[in-house]
Amino acid sequence: MSVRNYRAVVDMGAEWFIRSTSVVILLVIAGFFLQMASTALPLFKEPRISLAEVESAVATPVVSEIPRAVRDTGSDSPPLLVISDLGITGFEDGIVRGFLRTSANSGADLSAASGAVTSFSIATGLPSISYASTIANGGYVALFSADGFFQLGKINESDSAKLFPPVRIPRHDEVLSTPGKRSWLLLAGDKIHHVHLAASDDGLIAVPLLEYSLDSPALVVSNVGLTRHFVVADGESRFSLYKLGQAKSRATYSAGAPQSQVEKIEWNGPGHVNVFRVNGALERYRIDNFLNTLDVGDLLLPKHYEGYSEVTNTWQPEGIAEGVEPKYSFRPLLWGTLSSAFFALILSLPVALGAAVYVGYFMTPAYREIIKPVIEMLAAFPGVVIAGLAMLWLAPRLQEFVAELMGMFIMIPVTVSVLAMLLGSRVRSRPGRYFSRRLPLLLVPILSGALYGGAWLGSFVDAHFFGGSLVGWFAANRGVSVSYFNGLLVGLALSVATFPVIFSLAEEAIFSAPNSAAAGSLALGASPWQSFVDGVLPYAASGIVAALMLGLSRAIGETMILLLLSGNMPLLTVNPLEGIRSVAATLAIELPEAAVGSSHFRVLFLAALMLFLLTFAINTIAQLVKRRWHHRYGVSA
Hints:
Blueprint: H1 3-40, E1 48-55, H2 68-71, E2 81-83, E3 86-92, E4 95-101, E5 117-123, E6 131-134, E7 140-145, E8 149-155, E9 161-163, E10 167-168, E11 174-177, E12 183-188, E13 191-200, E14 203-213, E15 218-221, E16 229-234, E17 238-243, E18 251-254, E19 262-267, E20 272-277, E21 282-288, H3 296-300, E22 315-316, E23 327-328, H4 331-362, H5 365-376, H6 383-398, H7 402-429, H8 431-465, H9 470-477, H10 487-511, H11 516-523, H12 528-557, H13 560-565, H14 583-590, H15 599-633
Antiparallel strand pairs: 1-21, 2-3, 3-4, 4-5, 6-7, 7-8, 8-9, 8-10, 11-12, 12-13, 13-14, 15-16, 16-17, 17-18, 19-20, 20-21, 22-23
């Protein structure tokens, strides 16, 4: 085989290898996208109710005899009301008497032989008692009156109680407790009111949370399962599935038989409901696609959660106790991701582009060969190294030198503006000499002096007007929250990581512009800056835009810097001295611990898909900007 034929075969093999590799890469990216989508999209499936089995002549479950722990309270009369670890033994002339188990095992069955029981007597002004229960943190008794009153009491060891003022609640016929023991459902005809305990200046009070509107009056309502769902049988021969926190029913099933024949509905494990009818028949229903599904509003819109006094955007995917509502708001995570990227670009973009313009166009080739590799070496530093250095050195000093940093940020643009006015005429008269040699030697000491002067000015203002601590003054007098790890710290560290990326691509685009682009304008008497703007910038614009977008993508996708320096606090705040949390850091923290197939697991994959689409959108915007530049200047993008 001749050399020419050998080279042709090698070239053909290399071409097919490159093409096949590109196809494989595209298939891998498409596979990742489809895998994330197939894992996340089942979150939005609609639940479905179906009849699984019918049995006849089954006895309806009844409440068993009073447990021994209740009988041993010393009361001669049986309790009027027994609910979990609370019993009401008497109510007369506004005096409520009862017992409350105070053992460490307060969540166990009352029928256990062990467990201390504390009797109490509460002088309440309620006209009647329709329901009573304890709340999650124990020691509190919640009393309900069907006339529309609620009162909370704190049981003391001295057999007395501290009463909170009674509050008005909707009138009701029946009360159902929820798994978290901090909210209740009040059944009232064709409406179901959801009330919960929220903190106020007067302590814990019951306030309305939501109203579930029914098409027809509810005849029978099931208990609220640990999955926070309940089933309603209405007068239209329908079973409707509701979830706590969502006003509309999630699924309905037309039973055909009149619902007046339904005696009891109860959950029999996740996804299974038993319906007992008055004729002894037992109907077993199966509910699919309801455990690990969410509404889009739960992810993106503010929501009024149980225990909160107002609507919030909260990320707390795992409840602090069994039955407590998980919170999946994406907004704090998106805010943390975008705000950290914004802080980083605000700090790194002016310096990186300025350095790229000077090194790529104005600096002599000899100096460029020295400066460019030194700056690009920063790109070799892993994010975890930058985060470690910032955590050990910058974090302990940041709060002490916030005033100095602000002084430097103010002094630099002021100094540059003054220099432009003073040196503008001299630079225009001898542009080549100043831009190639003398200007850097003149600017370095001036800018160094400006940094020192800005730090001194910030320290002076801090000492004489803010008591020596700008951060402490704002925290004490303006209520500004300050965290050791915060968004400003993340922005400073992330700017170091994005600076070499933006500089390298932008400088290469500027340096690669053809010499003829600026030579003509220089020959006609234009200054070097005019030649750069009119001759070089149209050719380099696409590369500069790509550098900006790649730096933004690096900031959005960075994990270790935010994981170590942000404090991982999912807060929706504009205060840069508070902690934040990003999508990438959340994936790194929570994905290894999430149960496969759970709502938490699918929500995290949805967050990963959202991060992918965000970067895809950024790159799409970059392409559109490049095309617009191409049409405007008539140069290749």
